[in-house]
Specification:
The chain is an alpha/beta fold. Helix content is 41%, strand content 19%. The protein has a six-stranded parallel β-sheet. Strands 1-2-3 form a three-stranded parallel β-sheet. Strands 10-11 form a two-stranded antiparallel ribbon. α4 runs parallel beside α5. The longest helix has 18 residues, at 100-117. The model has no long low-confidence stretch (mean pLDDT 97).
Length: 240
Amino acid sequence: MKYLIDTHFHLDHYKNYIEVAESINALQQYTLAVTNSPGVFLSCQKIFTESNYLKLAMGFHPQNLELNPTDLNDFIKLLNRTNFVGEIGLDYSKNNFLNPTFQKECFEKIVECCASMNKVMTIHIRKAEDDAIQILRKYKPKKAIIHWYTGNEEYLRQLLELNCFFSINSNMVSGKNADRYRMIPIDHILVESDGPYTKVNGKKYSPELLFDSYSMIAKFYDDQEIIRHVYDNFKRMLLL
């Protein structure tokens, strides 16, 4: 099915990642493969050939305890190698993630640089909405995608005021807090799989299930033109 877009996918977390990459290209599904560190991004660049349908994003994941100031410096130096950044963000939900002070320092520097270079960012925020919104409000990036949003409706409203896009997956629209996502206007919705960390119709996500994910999201929003709307939204964001 042409024109399907997956804005958040962990290609390197699949054991059969070469086969999965080939499937993405064969299906002609535009897929943004996020990474968790600049080192992993470099490794993926050596393994995968980017195409019209597969793009690699450089990440700095707040749950990655191995990240340090040298990695942040590497991240900034490598930014000119890609137009896509992610997974980045803030996560204060557990003590065994990166130190919150270091997280905030890194996230602010990354957002500052990405805003000035107009990069697409896919952003993880959990129990850190105040700090994340403060930083996004300060630097006003044009291409911010909030990945698997879990905050409350007030923070969601503030993120919408900052013109953030939201990537929606099948688990989000079938979960207990799904109603909050109805606040998001159709023109700010994108689709993600977050594969392999979601299920579609009881099956672990694989690229062949992206159309089924779209179908679930279309039903949730009562929007039978969801494929066209998401495609137009993504295209519009790229042109900002």
